[in-house]
Amino acid sequence: MTLVACLDVGSTDTKLAVVDVTDGRLAATATHPTTAGTDVLDGVDALLAAAAARVGPVEHVYCCSSAGGGLRLAVVGQEALVSADAAHRVALSAGARVVHVAAGRQTPAQLRDVRAARPDVLLLAGGTDGGDPDTLLHNARRLAAARWRVPVVVAGNSDVRDEVAGLLAARGLPVTATGNVLPRIGVLDPAPARAAIREVFLRHVIGGKRLSRGTRFQRMVSAATPDAVLTGVSLLADLLADQGDLLVVDVGGATTDVYSALVPDESATVASGVAGTGVAGILWRARTVEGDLGVRWNTDGITAAAQRERLTVPDPAGGALGFAAAAAAVAVRRHTRTGRDLRNVVSVVASGGVFRHAEPTAANAALAPTLHDHAGGWALPRAPHVAVDRRYVLAPAGLLAEDHPGAAAALLRQLLHR
């Protein structure tokens, strides 16, 4: 038996899963309010101590975090419908909450709007490899002259990538240069930028949130929570690949995230796990995040969105589950409007504390408006298997996927039992 701890330090709660990585057995789970008011490690250590008393000490600790608002990212691209859209989707897949998207040659006033969105990281994109470099260089010069201090990830035209990085570094900006998110029209390559954003998040953002004294928490965290969940979703999709597509709806206190994993169309040109169709390409595995749909902090946003979509408006007296139902329905509608075809979804997984703590019949009833949304303008899955991530295994599986893929897969198989 080899026990490891998987921690998700959220803005509201810190969740622990102790996993025996020899067979993927879930040995223990626990939750503690996140102690952001003092030091997030206070809650972490309380959970680890309780787990040690119950099942014994762990040999390693894996951790993801969305505390302090998670990863806030702004995007500046070349054209709204091409490079800015591509960079936006890549940023979402990296576990970021995209707080601003801009395109074209930025003016000082436009850069003030970017700054006002308070991003933790700026993703600077623009131009295909070998294409027009002028907009990317212009925006880099504007940033360099604007006393910008937020870390920048440069993921644009490779012909001028080093020049752009040099312009920013010369003004003391933390800058990371990586592969182009759109190396050529119709080909979206998310992996290099996603890895760079993750590294910047770990190196600059976690420490800058002042969530803990010292560097122990910063060294402990290996991913933003949505990034870990997307990794778990991708692994679950691999287990389902011979059956069809996967949809995951995660309703949280501040946001509602939707993940879809589509089986690649072999008739399409595929590069780096994405399809070469459309001017900005298609991510086979994608995430959208709705910052106005949260059952703890954004119930007014859920009400307003439900009214705009002509859905049943939640009754506050009915509790959080009604808001979760409306948030899920709105978020999936928005997800499909990005071009996602969910007709071949064979499994739907609901995540989030509201669903985990609800009675099974109540949770299934809350998902019904989404799965029977005939007025939503999207083709519904025919007969999907519906599951609730009651033991919260998606994030732990994502944390374990690299070092212990067998254990991660074993954790996820419990969601597939019919």
Could you give the order of strands across the largest sheet?
A: 3-2-1-4-10
CATH class of the largest domain: Alpha Beta
- Report Rg: 21 Å
**What is the β-strand count?**
18
Global outline: globular
The assigned CATH architecture of the largest domain is 2-Layer Sandwich
Low-confidence stretches: 268-277
Q: Tell me the CATH topology of the largest domain.
A: Nucleotidyltransferase, domain 5
Provide the domain count: 3
What structural category characterises the helix and strand content? alpha/beta
Question: Given the structure, what is the number of helices?
Answer: 14
Helix content: 25-40%
Largest sheet: 5 strands, mixed
First and last CA, distance: 28 Å
Summarize the structure in short.
The protein is α/β, with parallel strands linked by helices. Helices cover 37% and strands 22% of the residues. The longest helix is centred in the middle third of the chain and has 18 residues.
Report on this structure.
The chain has 418 residues and is α/β, with parallel strands linked by helices. It folds into three domains: 77 residues, 2-Layer Sandwich (Nucleotidyltransferase, domain 5), CATH 3.30.420.300; 134 residues, Rossmann fold, CATH 3.40.50; 179 residues, Nucleotidyltransferase, domain 5 (2-Layer Sandwich). 37% of the residues lie in helices and 22% in strands. It is built from 14 helices and 18 strands. The strands form four sheets. A five-stranded mixed sheet has the order 3-2-1-4-10, with helices on both faces. A five-stranded parallel sheet has the order 6-5-7-8-9, with helices on both faces. Strands 16-12-11-17-18 form a five-stranded mixed sheet, with helices on both faces. Helix 4 runs parallel beside helix 5 and helix 9 crosses helix 10. About 2% of the residues have low confidence.
